[in-house]
Structures are given as C-alpha cells and as structure tokens.
Amino acid sequence: MANSTSFSSYYPMFLIFIVFAIIPATANSIDIADIERGKLLYGNYCKECHDPWRHSRQESEIKTPTDLKRRIIGWQVHKNLSWQAQDVNDVYHYLNQQYYHFNRTQQ
Ligand code: HEC
Predict the structure, then answer these.
(1) How far is the CA of 75 from the centre of ligand 1 (A)?
(2) Within a domain: residue 23?
C-alpha cells in the first residue's frame, strides 16, 4: 500500500520527465525535415535568380534573423506564391543553415 501511494505521488513528475525527454528529440528531427523542405521550395521558386553569390556577398543587407524572414516573405509575395508561415520558416531554416548562420536563440 505504501508503495503504490508513493508511486502515484511521483507519477506526474515521471510524466513531466518523459515529456521533456521526448521534446528535444522530436524538435531535432522536425528541423532536419524542415531544412530539406525549405531547400526544395527554394530550389523550385527562388534559386533561378540567385546562386550562392547572392547570400554570401559581403555587403548583404541581411543582418538579423528578422531581416532574413522579411526578405523571404517579400520575395514570395513578389513571386505570388501564397506561402504559409511554415513555408517561410522552412526556407528560413535552409538559408540560415546554408549561408547566414544566425544563432538558434536569435530566431
Ligand atoms: C526575379 C529574380 C529573383 C527571384 C525569383 C527571387 N529573388 Fe531573391 N533576390 C534577387 C535579387 C536581384 C536580389 C538582390 C537585391 C536585393 O537584395 O533585393 C535578391 C536578394 C534576396 C535576399 C537578400 C540576400 C542578401 O543576403 O542580401 C534574400 C534573402 C532573397 N533574395 C530571398 C529570396 C527568396 C526566398 C525567393 C523565393 C521566394 C527569392 N529571393 C526569389 C532576385 C530574385
């Protein structure tokens, strides 16, 4: 009896522990899928005009993650793509990983 009482009082803690153990693993795998998806979107709709020179030039106007997001949103409007937030995010993650390397905590 004493045993089952103490288990049930630790049970919520146990659940919380499990949730925190799972979240980072899931977040990681989503990141990789997002980057792959962003790469495809970018390759299909954006790359025709820019090759690596565009994003790595010294005088890039992109100084912060917000600049980059704004620019992606601007270009998808220009191309009439009606991207959702998820699409913009995926391209953001791809370009960031590939060229800009903003810190994760800045995102
Ligand atoms: C019609 C050609 C064209 C297309 C299509 C195009 N871009 Fe661009 N992009 C440019 C040119 C030219 C520049 C440089 C001028 C400028 O900075 O606005 C640029 C600049 C950028 C920059 C800033 C680069 C830097 O570091 O200064 C980003 C980010 C960008 N484009 C993202 C995109 C995305 C995302 C798409 C697809 C939705 C896209 N572009 C489609 C021509 C294009």
Answers:
(1) 6
(2) no
Nearest CA to ligand 1 atom 17: 61
Give the CA distances from residue 30 to residues 21, 33, 70, 86, 89, in Å, rounded to whole numbers and listed in that order. Answer: 16, 5, 23, 12, 12
Has residue 24 been placed in a domain? no
Q: Token pair of 50, please?
A: 């820019």
pLDDT of 83 higher than 90: yes
d(C-alpha 21, C-alpha 105), whole Å: 20
Q: Both tokens of residue 59?
A: 């005088």
Q: Per residue in 29-67, pLDDT tens? A: 557 788 999 999 999 999 988 876 677 667 788 999 999
Q: Please state the domain count of the chain.
A: 1
